[in-house]
Specification:
Low-confidence stretches: 475-508
Shape: globular
Strand order of the largest sheet: 1-2
Radius of gyration: 23 Å
Largest sheet: 2 strands, antiparallel
Distance between the termini: 20 Å
Order of helices and strands: HHHHHHHHEEHHHHHHHHHHHHH
């Protein structure tokens, strides 16, 4: 997998230097090689895609390649390969409330865009950007992975993640040495009393997310398998996430651990052990973070509490941009989305008009209409904060109908993950399902202050792990056992079982 990812980037670099290709062609080279790996081995190809997207910005820094379209090109190719090459493994899910909700969201987006006369050159690519994470979710859902495949790819990503975390720790201890050895992207920021760490990433938010992602899976592993090394490493990674200087990792980790406690109490499983370890983890985070970041947290509370008159101004009939200008950009996006949904009830202002990437690429007239163009990060000159949230985009662009549909989709998905983590699976499979649930909860928390379900790479890991968690219960027995017994070109029975076959337990 590492060879495939490295080879894809090297091939793109060589072609770019020899032929002077543009970003689409360079991204296409990487995407085609990833699709080839997926055609060869499903699990390894999916992981190669995830790692390539995770490292794309870093490779851009190292090589000056423009890889901005890798995921947009790769996902359609992966879908084509799945149908053309792996159709024998496909297990179509039954259409249920989750799919109906997603369909309503799509219809709301299309109808609102047409009604608002949004140019097709804006709303069509905008719809594609909104749905690419959902598309990856269903791609993984359609291809239940064998347990030995899950063991291989989770082990591989665990090693990769720890290597990245290790580089970040070296950067914390000796920034100059780490920068010289690994050519780290420049990022100089102080939060509280610590120098922010970003490791090989171009932004520290990814470093914090990765540490929490690994920490929650290890926490789940300890709760289910009682492996003390997993708890020790989970606590250590939770502490490491503080070095990113970001709020979302800390809040997401705490809420994820709280969800674990509620889940185990409801299930009647390991209640005392879960509660005690959760208290230990949160206590360690508090003991470390408050001395270093306490002042920063207090400032955050002040920043996100807006005076009522500012909120009322955004909601007024003729908002004054000079009054609204001091608002925090995320607050302005939330309040602005409510005003837009009210004025464009029930379908919003259309795809590509608010809180989305396309509303930044072709600066949306909606921002000055609601007096938001003077807010720092939302103005036409530097709209860098436009995509800082997820739910205001849904409400502003698809209205109340789209918001309710999206909420229903994620509620059903969360409930399904909750139930799978309660199922009678093998211990190691249950640990994976439990970890997928906790990571999904963290992603929900993150979506409140970031575009967690649309922005790569976090969106793909959030959706991908959720799909894997669901298929741990719904995987056909023949896939779990790694056998084939269906004629007519299919390699497995289509019957769905309530438990994962124990033929290939993931105990290691």
């Amino acid at each position: 997998m590492l060879t495939v990812v490295a080879g894809a980037f090297v091939a793109a670099f060589a072609a770019d230097r020899l032929l002077g290709l543009g970003p689409v062609a360079v991204s296409a080279i990487v995407a085609i090689i990833l699709a080839g790996a997926f055609a060869w081995r499903v699990a390894d190809g999916l992981l190669a895609f995830g790692v390539a997207v995770l490292l794309a910005d870093t490779v851009e820094h190292w090589t000056t390649l423009d890889l901005r379209y890798v995921d947009e090109i790769a996902i359609p190719l992966l879908i084509v390969v799945a149908v053309a090459v792996h159709r024998a493994r496909l297990v179509p899910p039954q259409v249920g409330v989750r799919e109906v909700a997603l369909g309503v969201l799509v219809v709301a987006g299309v109808v609102s865009s047409l009604a608002a006369e949004v140019p097709a050159s804006i709303w069509i690519p905008g719809l594609g950007l909104l749905l690419k994470g959902f598309a990856f979710f269903y791609l993984v859902l359609l291809l239940p992975l064998r347990l030995e495949e899950l063991r291989r790819i989770t082990g591989a990503f665990f090693v990769i993640g720890l290597a990245i975390i290790g580089i970040g720790l070296l950067q914390f201890v000796d920034p100059d040495l780490a920068r010289g050895l690994f050519g780290l992207p420049p990022f100089d920021q102080q939060r509280g009393s610590i120098q922010v760490v970003h490791s090989i990433f171009t932004h520290p938010a990814l470093f914090g997310w990765l540490a929490v992602f690994l920490s929650l899976f290890l926490f789940a592993r300890f709760i289910v398998l009682r492996e003390w090394w997993a708890l020790a490493l989970s606590v250590a990674l939770g502490a490491v996430s503080l070095l990113s200087g970001r709020r979302a990792p800390v809040v997401g980790l705490i809420v994820g651990v709280a969800a674990a406690v509620l889940h185990q109490i409801g299930a009647g499983r390991a209640r005392l052990r879960t509660l005690l370890t959760a208290v230990v983890l949160v206590a360690v985070l508090a003991a470390i973070s408050l001395p270093m970041l306490g002042a920063f947290y207090r400032w955050t509370l002040v920043e996100y509490v807006e005076p009522p008159e500012l909120i009322a101004e955004v909601l007024s009939e003729f908002p004054d941009p000079t009054i609204i200008a001091p608002m925090a950009p995320r607050n302005a996006l939330y309040v602005g989305s409510v005003a837009i949904a009210r004025d464009h009830i029930p379908l919003g202002a259309g795809i590509g008009r608010f809180g989305s990437h396309m509303s930044r690429e072709a600066y949306s007239p909606v921002y000055p209409q609601y007096g938001l163009d003077r807010v720092n990060g939302l103005g036409a000159d530097a709209p860098i904060a436009v995509t800082d949230t997820f739910w205001p985009m849904i409400l502003g662009e698809t209205g109340v109908v789209g918001l309710l549909a999206a909420l229903l989709f994620f509620a059903v998905l969360g409930w399904q993950l909750w139930r799978v983590a309660l199922a009678e699976l093998s211990p190691a499979a249950r640990a994976l399902a439990f970890g997928a649930l906790l990571v999904f909860v963290e992603a929900l928390v993150r979506s409140l202050i970031s575009p967690a379900f649309v922005a790569p790479p976090i969106a793909y890991f959030a959706f991908g792990t959720a799909a894997i968690g669901i298929t741990l219960r719904q995987a056909p027995a023949t896939v779990a056992a790694g056998t084939t017994n269906r004629s007519g070109g299919d390699a497995h029975e289509a019957h769905v079982h309530d438990t994962v076959d124990g033929a290939n337990p993931v105990e290691g």
